[in-house]
Write a structure and sequence with these properties.
By secondary structure, the protein is an alpha+beta fold. It has helices spanning 37-51, 77-87, 110-118, and strands spanning 9-14, 55-63, 68-70, 73-75. 29% of the residues lie in helices and 18% in strands. α1 (37-51) packs across α2 (77-87).
Length: 119
């Protein structure tokens, strides 16, 4: 990071796409083109390998990620966090779950989301 006269970062915030829910480009290397959780996590590991070495020791990395519901399963956020914990020297400091009221994808389906949350 020569532009900032530093070789290390004190905070890295990452907000990857939620697999193929919203496609950002038509490029095959774009994470938003991936519809397979194993492939997505594999690519995320490569990305983390590229930037986590620049994080100062005892500093912070925030992952902002939502879950995806496919084939009667909720996944993505926890699979991604698990991969990071298994492959990198990081500590999980907390998980924040945000319920977005009025989300267009949730309109009229409050009962099913409550059921999935309890399940």
């Amino acid at each position: 990071m020569p532009k900032f006269n530093s070789q290390k970062a004190q905070l890295i915030i990452m907000h990857p796409p939620y697999m193929d829910i919203v496609k950002f480009t038509n490029k095959k290397e774009d994470l938003s083109q991936i519809d397979n959780i194993q492939e997505f996590v594999k690519k995320m590991k490569i990305i983390c390998n590229n930037f986590l070495p620049f994080l100062e020791k005892n500093r912070y990395f925030a992952l902002v990620i939502g879950d995806v519901y496919k084939n009667s399963k909720v996944f993505l956020g926890f699979y991604t966090m698990d991969m990071i914990k298994r492959n990198f020297d990081v500590k999980l400091k907390g998980i924040i779950i945000k319920n977005i009221e009025g989300n267009r994808g949730k309109l009229g389906s409050g009962g099913i989301w409550r059921y999935r949350g309890i399940e």
